[in-house]
């Protein structure tokens, strides 16, 4: 039985009619990559590097970061590892950086905004990521992108550091794919423009829901309003996937929605390419996918985006799972 369980765990994720999708794991440290590999993930869809920064009492230097990213890449043995540059600010404080007190931290100085403001820190991180690319399949992901200017600046810094390392004689991958988190509605709305330039999108529903619905993801008082089945969120998700495909790019999702088996038929119907989640959620989502027919899911997705409320979407999904179509 153990052998059978093991075998099913490592079977590639696919729908009943054979549509393959990639299942990634979300990790917060290089050691987590071991769990990710053991859980049958096809790769790491999100390496949240900020934990590396939060555990230290000062900014980790280039070598320290390089060792962590390299270890993750090696543990995944050639499977892709998407490394997100530091997503500090918002709910994630760093005592040694003494970030300013803000009235609205989630709307303030966070993530790529800090990276582009303190460019030397971002350059150090990008060098570490580029050096790790010599030891596996490493991709760079920029968080909280709200406009094309931020993306272009971040991408240029990556290119500059990549080229510099090569000039210095460091072994680096020939090419390092770069993408953006889609977690701010403006990025989703301009997905068609971004799609021409990025290698991939990763939809962060945790923040995308917060910003689309104006519902603080940390505030219990408004928690009932926080719902990724809201039709407005679904429209944005679909838009991003369609825009990426129109340019021959791929879209992943690394927010909590990807790990919800009830969302699986909807996301399969939208054509989502890669799903990244906590390692523990992988077996359930794989099992849910294996029962689905991709054609029926496409019809379901069309019906769902046309509904008016999250409750209606949820009811439709529950009905779909119950009767299988
Ligand atoms: C997200 O916003 O969905 C996401 C994956 O990023 P984080 O939860 O780290 O903000
Ligand atoms: Mg986020």
Automatic annotation (TrEMBL):
Record organism: Paenibacillus flagellatus
Subcellular location: Cytoplasm
Protein name: Phosphoenolpyruvate-protein phosphotransferase
Catalysis performed (reactions): L-histidyl-[protein] + phosphoenolpyruvate = N(pros)-phospho-L-histidyl-[protein] + pyruvate
Gene: ptsP
Domain (PEP-utilising enzyme C-terminal): residue spans on this chain: 7-292
Portion of the full-length sequence here: 264 to 588 of 590
Keyword terms: Cytoplasm, Kinase, Magnesium, Metal-binding, Phosphotransferase system, Pyruvate, Sugar transport, Transferase, Transport
GO function term, MF aspect, one: phosphoenolpyruvate-protein phosphotransferase activity
Active site, renumbered: 254
Residues that bind Mg(2+): 183, 207
């Amino acid at each position: 039985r153990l052998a059978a369980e093991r075998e099913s765990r490592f079977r590639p994720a696919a729908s009943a009619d054979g549509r393959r999708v990639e299942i990634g794991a979300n990790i917060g440290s290089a050691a987590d990559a071991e769990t990710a590999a053991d859980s049958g993930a096809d790769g790491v869809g999100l390496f949240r590097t900020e934990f590396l920064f939060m555990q230290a009492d000062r900014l980790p230097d280039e070598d320290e970061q390089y060792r962590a990213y390299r270890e993750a890449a090696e543990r995944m043995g050639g499977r892709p590892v998407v490394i997100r540059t530091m997503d500090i600010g918002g709910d994630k404080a760093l005592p040694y950086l003494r970030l300013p007190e803000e009235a609205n931290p989630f709307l303030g100085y966070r993530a790529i905004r800090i990276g582009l403001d303190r460019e030397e820190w971002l350059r150090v991180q990008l060098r570490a990521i580029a050096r790790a690319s010599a030891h596996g399949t490493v991709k760079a992901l920029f968080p909280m992108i709200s406009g094309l200017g931020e993306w272009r600046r971040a991408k240029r810094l990556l290119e500059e550091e990549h080229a510099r390392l090569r000039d210095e004689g460091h072994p680096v991958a020939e090419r390092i794919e770069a993408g953006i988190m889609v977690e701010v509605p403006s990025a989703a709305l301009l997905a068609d423009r971004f799609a021409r330039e990025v290698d991939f999108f990763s939809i962060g529903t945790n923040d995308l829901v917060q910003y689309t619905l104006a519902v603080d993801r940390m505030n219990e008082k408004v928690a009932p309003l926080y719902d990724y089945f809201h039709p407005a969120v679904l429209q944005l998700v679909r838009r991003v996937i369609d825009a990426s495909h129109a340019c021959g790019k791929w879209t992943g999702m690394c927010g909590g929605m990807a790990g919800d088996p009830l969302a699986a038929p909807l996301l399969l119907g939208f054509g989502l390419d890669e799903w990244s989640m906590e390692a523990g959620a992988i077996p359930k989502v794989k099992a849910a996918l294996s029962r689905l027919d991709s054609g029926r899911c496409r019809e379901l997705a069309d019906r769902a985006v046309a509904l008016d409320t999250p409750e209606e979407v949820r009811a439709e999904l529950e009905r779909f799972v119950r009767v299988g179509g």
